[in-house]
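Quick one: structure tokens for this chain, please?
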Amino acid sequence: MTTDSAQNKDTGLINQVMPDTGKHSLDAITEESWIDVIHKMDSVYANLVDYQVELEEKNTELEEAHHFINSVLSSMTDVLIVCDTQNRIQRVNHKLEDLIEQSAEELVGRDMYELFDQASKDNLARYSKKVLSETVYDCEVNLLSSEKGLVPLALNCGARYDHKGRYVGMVLIGRPVGELRQAYKELNTAHQELQQAQQQLLQSEKMASLGRLVAGVAHELNNPISFVFGNIHALKRYGARFTSYLEAIHSHADREEIKHLREDLKIDSMLSDIDSLIDGTLEGAERVKDIVQDLRRFSSSQRDEKQWFNLSTVLRTAVQWVVKAERVKPEVSFQIPDELEVNAHEGQIHQILVNLVQNAVDVMEEVKDPRLEVVCYQKDDKAVVEIRDFGSGIPDEDLVRVFDPFFTTKPVGKGTGLGLYISYNIADEHGGSLQVKNHSEGGAVFILTLPLSIKS
């Protein structure tokens, strides 16, 4: 039995059996329950507002931390060289540029050893291996300068690791002996604080996205919960009638009286209906459980396990969450298969899709008849998702910046500029990609590509 038919049938049974006072009592109970739900939702919304304020404050703190790091590097009176595991230069400071009279643009990407004389190269080769186990202090090297010749330096060499603890290169700082340790300690502390702030901000952005979807999720929960409530109340009434019938039997009423009571209480109708009521209630409860699991996967700060899941189902859920939360709902057209299995972190892929759909809906706020096109298909050994809006498109000068952290064209309070940045990095970590382009017929298209199977 479908939800609507079960509910209609149940309503008919209640109208036939219950007096007006019983109906009013049921309405009062239901009204009190929903008032309680509304109060709780108000409390959740208030907490989300506080969370958004905290997010904006952390955003400001992180920007200040970025400025702080850049100002430290610019004002250092010592040489700073940052290189990768292949000894290619990744970053230098103004002091090095002044000493060897070459700009950072000329130096980045070059082999670090090109900056030193032969004796220094031999020493640095040993130091680059030694830093894997310990920091190297006060090593003597000579920089090559076209104008000044050899420039002697005392270097400290340390290993550099990413947020996963993997070795990604070496940091060299040259300064007079005795002052190096304090400068390196301060720089390292600032870098750790920046990393911690970034991790906190990434999680805050995810929670802020969830906050924007609360209205849509509440609508998703409303239908199955209402259905469960209705069925449970019907089953309660059925129980009362079954009890009356059984009491009549146990009181040894005559056969004719029991027959009339069976007809009056509609025992046969209830017996035929009770299975569908129970099945419908279980179906509603399962739907609530699925929605809660989706919420937990989306909001969790821990990595969920990789598993095979239907990308088409997750994509539809993401679209529903966003669209149902909008005041003006766009017309959505789907071109997706019934099933497209991928092996990935489901919660993280869900977050990407929510971010992309939310971004598409936001840019169509002022569009008269907003439309959203969602396409999903398999291409070779990859799954491809394309989400197109029908807005004004993205200016050419901004196309290369949309995935930069903190870049946003939204007004203050509407976005942090981290949603697409986070999505880009999640896709990259999964061995996939996230791209954007303007559609030839208007609007922008974001293209998410994922390998069908992701290796551990």
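The longest strand covers residues 149-161.
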